[in-house]
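Collaborator request, handled under Task 6.
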Amino acid sequence: MKDVLIRQDNRITMARYELSLIEKRVMYFVLKEIRNQFVLNESGQRDLFNDLIVKMNAKNLVKEVYPGHHKSVKEALKSLRLRSFEYDNGEPEDSDTHHWFEVGFINWSDWNGNGNVEVQISNKILPFYVELTTRYTEYSLLVAMSLKSKWSQRVYELCAQWRSASGFKMAIKELRKMFKLNSEYARYASFKTYVLDVAHKEIKALYDKGQCDLYFEYSENKNGRSVHSLNFKIISSKTENTMSLQDVDYAIRTELSILFETRSRPKNEAFVGEVMNLLRLNPENLEPCYKKILYVKEHIPLAEQARYLRFVLNEEYLKNDVFN
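Structure tokens returned to the collaborator:
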């Protein structure tokens, strides 16, 4: 398979959904065809409702997704019609700015009698695949298709999103929501063994063979004996450009929302909103602010990080103690 770079909206990378290994590979193949037919060549077909009709060669689809297993690929297409992903922008549900979105991956599939497969992609999902802004995740199709664990697939995409920042921090409960684990691997030890370590081992092995463009290491953040979040360090073979201002803005908002637990603390939500508004009015402060956040995470004890960073943000950006 010739390698290509696939781009998808960051909201898909961070969305809540669960696909099997084969279902995810089918979607990777569909994304490649959307890129070829609608992004690069603009030769693809749309119906009267502006939905995409993606045409694929059946033999190539089976060969790249699961060689020799036509029935499994058909079952994956059938399941994808019933699958959906869910996006939530993290704003309080009673807020006017709250955005919740759910959409199916495909509307229908047709394995017709002339050696082709067609799938319909809803116009509601098109902005995530076609009308990309600066907030997108770019990753290797060859790597994504070669991964043998659905957890490796999701973690690889996450690492690709945060590659230019060299890492990210995420709460365990947020990862579980993204992967739709519900009661599966409820104990952290199980989550670590069957999700994190599986992804780490497979991605690192491919990287060591020169077959993957990145790998990750992770460390645990604890309250007593309980692990509440993880620090991911991304090691990449590619030289990345600096993050765009939009990506820095997104990274700051994400880090502050986790650190100040904005979902459960309205005053902290107001504090973070005030900081973000001022930073956006003075975009030259975005990158220095992000570096300060990363410094605090690395050098200040976890129990002191929120208090310390609140003081820094007040002194350097807000210059008041309204939210203290």
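The cover message to the collaborator said: "Residues 320-324 have pLDDT under 50 and may be disordered. Residues 148-239 form a domain with the Arc Repressor Mutant, subunit A fold (CATH 1.10.10.10). Please let us know whether this matches your experimental observations."
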